Amino acid sequence: MVTNSKKATQDFVPIKDIKGSVVQLKSGQYCMVLLASSINFALKSADEQKAILTTFQNFLNTLDFSLQFYTQSRRLNIRPYLELLEERSVLQNNDLMRIQLREYINFIQSFTAEVDVMSKNFFVVIPYIPTQINLQSNFKSFMGTNQSSAGNKEKGRFEEYRTQLEQRAMIVEQGLNRIGIRTIPLQEEELVEMYYHIFNPSDVSGHAPQRE
Questions:
Q1: Residues near 73 by beta carbon (within 8 Å), at least 6 away in sequence
Q2: Which residue ranges make up each domain of the chain?
Q3: Span 170-179, pLDDT tens digits
Q4: 95-114 and 79-91 helices cross at what angle (nearest 10)?
Q5: The whole model's pTM is what?
Q6: Higher model confidence: residue 118 or residue 106?
């Protein structure tokens, strides 16, 4: 008997579902992802750098849960910008401005052909792993005969997990604010796009396919 050893692409993706700002993994873990701003540490004075490091260290020491800091670098899709310049060039009535705009377009095209222009985003991943008791409860409700009741319990547990994540996100937000970093939780469409580009790094289109 010949068996197909190839696995579907979905088998390699650890994500089970995304609801609002919450990501549910196949492992049973839940997480929330925050988009974080950056600070130019190199331009700070020695005293400011020391204060930032000390504040950040104190923030990490107060946490009773783990965090993951993730930097995503993506090749910037410059094509839409060039198309916009082309449209402006056609509408330009001033000959000198049209020539300068054309030279600028040629410069951008030659520069990006030799150098990869990258965009960089910073993320903070906040995990939450339900306790063993909750997992056992999930199994019991799954084996029960009342599907409506089980569905309500599952929804209630999800809201509990979401609340736990939101509380952790608030702690992280306040801690990072002290060193001048602002954060915002990613919502469903933004999470889909982030994970899409993690698993499809060669796609420079800038947008993930729409969910069905």
A1: 118, 119, 120
A2: 9-75+121-199, 77-116
A3: 999 999 999 9
A4: 170
A5: 0.71
A6: 106
